[in-house]
Amino acid sequence: MATATLDAPDVAGRPTPPPRRRAGARTTLTAGSSLGLGIAVTWFSLLVLIPLTAIVATSAERGWSGYVDTITNDQTMAAIQLTVGQAALVTGVNIVMGTLIAWVLVRDRFFGKRILDVVIDIPFALPTIVAGLVLLGLYGNNSPIGLDWAYTDRAVMLALAFVTLPFIVRTVQPVLEELDHDVEEAAASLGASRLTIFRRIILPSLVPAITAGAALSFARAIAEYGSLVLLSGNKPFSTEVVSVRVLSFIENGSTASAAAVASLMLAVALVVIVVLDVIQRRVSRRG
């Protein structure tokens, strides 16, 4: 007959009960937290998930052949190439210039620093159509600086650079302010050069902020409309961007075609965000 075995007795001489098996991970949500989560998910679904699902569903109304025909249309492809190319170029410029501006605002002292810190946010507050009017006055036919770039592909880059500049500045600036200077001073005392300190200490801390700002900058650029209406001229095969092309489809009653182009740009944005996230993780791991 099998006999049951008892665990070793404790200090008081009583047998210690066997350890209980965990029944699995339990949620830590309280009743109030569960309510908050439900509200948040519902709100997010109403604002983001359901509209995006509707766009994808609408884009499939004409079938796969209709989707491909819309995307591969010469005028549509020209608008996509211009928009994605200029958005990528502007994002690259913003990574360099935005990080540099954030560095100057945090690490340097100079006259007018607070004014510059406020001016950086103007593209956030300024209506985009007004931004286009300002840029047209500066780079139009009667340019006070002699640069007549209106209605060219350079006008597209100018408009996108104007509306996206603050993203990287405002994501990098708080991280720079929180960096511990003692670590940099310790590395310098051990003989590390400024380049080594920046590459091995500062940059790994900034990469998450830079990639987050770059993702926001790119996503904002491929969706820009207002500042380009006046400045670019919206000429097909030349300065017409995707947002204008989508509007032309809607005005012509082709909602499925507009949704097809919109769904493609959504996919492009998601791919860019994933790639930037992978780069951020690898650089941070090396750091």
Structure report:
It comes from Nocardioides silvaticus. The protein has helices at residues 31-59, 63-71, 74-107, 113-119, 122-125, 128-139, 153-178, 181-189, 194-222, 226-231, 242-251, 255-286. It has 287 residues and is mainly alpha-helical. Helix 3 (74-107) packs across helix 9 and helix 9 (194-222) packs antiparallel against helix 12 (255-286).
The percent range for strand residues is under 5%
Tally of helical runs: 12
Structural class: mainly alpha
Provide mean pLDDT, rounded: 83
Please bin the fraction of helical residues.
Answer: over 70%
Which descriptor suits the 3D outline?
A: globular
- List segments where confidence is low: pLDDT < 50 over at least 5 consecutive residues: 1-6
The name of the CATH topology is MetI-like fold
Number of strands: 0
Largest sheet: none
CATH superfamily heading: MetI-like
Number of domains: 1
What radius of gyration results from the CA coordinates? 27 Å
CATH architecture term: Orthogonal Bundle
Order of helices and strands: HHHHHHHHHHHH
Termini distance? 63 Å
CATH class: Mainly Alpha
